[in-house]
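Before surveying the methods themselves, let us examine one representative protein, pairing a chain with its fold in token form.
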Amino acid sequence: MDRISLSNSAFEGDNNAYLFADGRETVLIDTGDWMETTREQLEAAFDERGLAFADVDRIFLTHWHGDHTGLAGVIQAESGAEVYAHEADAPLIEGDEDAWESMHDLQHRYFDEWGMPEEKQAVLKERMASAGGANESPTVTSFEDGDRFSLEGYDHDLEVVHTSGHAAGLSMFETTLDGRREVVSGDALLPVYTPNVGGADVRVDQPLEKYLRALQGIVDADYDRAWPGHRDPIDDPAGRAQYIIDHHEERAFRVLDALDRKGPCDTWTVSADLFGELESIHILHGPGESYAHLEHLERAGTVVREGDEYRLADGVSEVLAAKDEERWTLEY
């Protein structure tokens, strides 16, 4: 498997596409975004290996975000490749109008519920509209958790591991390379940033709980290496996953501390306390992440929601004062 690094102006860093080209079929995992520069980079990487887009037989997509799916339609049009994605994300990748309308309606509803100021909503909506998307949407064959795909001419398979949280259909692909148990983790596990939950896909119900469960699955699997959707390979996936779990425990404490200091307030106010002034796509990610934590803490009984505001449950302030620097354990 070859890792192909592709440019990306997003904060996560350069994208990765993964190419299997040593067997009887050519298989690609993720494609990068739809930008012409990315297309030129991917075409050049193929050319260096004596290949062209027309040679691709199958494409597996980790999730619906455009920086991972942007060229899937272009490659399918040139090659007739079959494109696969999780059933939760397939309609968005295919450009289904009803799926996208439902997504946008839900986003706008959350913007209001979170208390996002109108001027910030305007900036965010303009940013999202200007981001564009793939020029051609592929036809997608859906898969689900546990599905296994044989690769012709290779001594290993790809097994789907559904890891919802960052996106409803986010999936990893588990495989064996040179006798090592490895995984293409997409955005479920990144080496530098912690993947956003709550804002990156507002369709995900109980996003933090689902993501924590996915991370614990990575810890338990104890893979030898992870190949992420952005930046460099991760040589200690279990350690990185545990770090992110710990990160969210610390953030939960910060959310509770914000409510303790400010009293009842909405999601936007908590987000401002955690992240400060937000611009561009972070206007979505900041309150989205805050909401994911508030929703999780509400179900745990630590936070009470009243309308669109949240407050600490009775007795929690005293417990916070007693525990102070200790971390709260998040259940999932």
